[in-house]
Amino acid sequence: MAEEAAAAAAASAGAAAEGRMTMVVGVDESEHSYYALQWTLRHFFAAAGQQPQYRLVVVNAKPTAASAVGLAGPGAADVLPFVEADLKKSSMRVIEKAKELCAQVSDALFEVLEGDARNVLCEAVERHQAEMLVVGSHGYGAIKRAVLGSVSDYCSHHAHCTPVMLVGIDDSDHSYYTLEWTLKHFFTPDQPQQYHLVFTSAPPTSALIGIAGLGTAELLLTLELDLKCGAAIVIEKAKEMCSQVIDASYEVLEGDARNVLCEAVERHHADMLVVGSHGYGAWKRAVLGSVSDYCSHHAHRTVMIVKRPKHKTHS
Fold first, then answer.
1. CATH class of the domain at 164-307
2. Collapsing DSSP states into helix, strand and coil, what is residue 55?
3. Which of the ends of the chain has fewer CB neighbours closer than 10 A, N or C?
4. What mean pLDDT is reported for the chain?
5. Can you name the CATH fold of 2-158?
6. Per-domain residue ranges of the chain
């Protein structure tokens, strides 16, 4: 298996020389795993007659016999060879199923590596210099994650794959200009996508409007509906502008935009935050609060503030 892994890494290096990026997909015997692989094929390898943007590497982690059984004492040594044989057969079944699903991908690589799936996948990302790691989620709750250990949760914190760029958006012209600027400088169609793009919109909550008195409840409900509609329009506009970006996600989160964006940076482990500037003077920044100024001081990542030229209007 070591020789196969070395050969696979060499093949991935060849793909990089061709200008293609590498995607590692972790597979096991679960339905969640096969769904993740099918989702990946449908979204990244479905274009007929075109060379995929990614080189596909499918990795199965085979646990050691000792870790799978946890036996000790007399007779344990006699049982382990049978367990090892069963584990090898299981891994072969997984790989055969993966090959069947990936029949349309002519140059996919498949490898079985021994060890804990969490470590195996993170090491595969490093070895193949992969830009993206795809794993299925079993949907464990907090207790099961703590007791059993979540592979997807571990990999999201330890696998150093595609950098994440988070862009804060609202319904202002400054925001749309910022999005246009970001797309023009980082996501041109003729260049490989270097970042996973996350759009976060934080419309004000009705509580921030600051109203009270008779009829407040009815008015707040109307305001809440209007704010949700406005947020949906912003997201649809962003999706329309980002039609050429294949790896983007969108979210609407309730709260003060300054806190929402800084928390989103931490949650997504973003490498860069991009926000627009309304060009407020010192007095307006002090009274209204500047989102870009706040984020530049409190988001513990690179913050890029894009300021729209005065003559520039969003088309």
1. alpha beta
2. strand
3. C
4. 78
5. Rossmann fold (3.40.50)
6. 2-158, 164-307
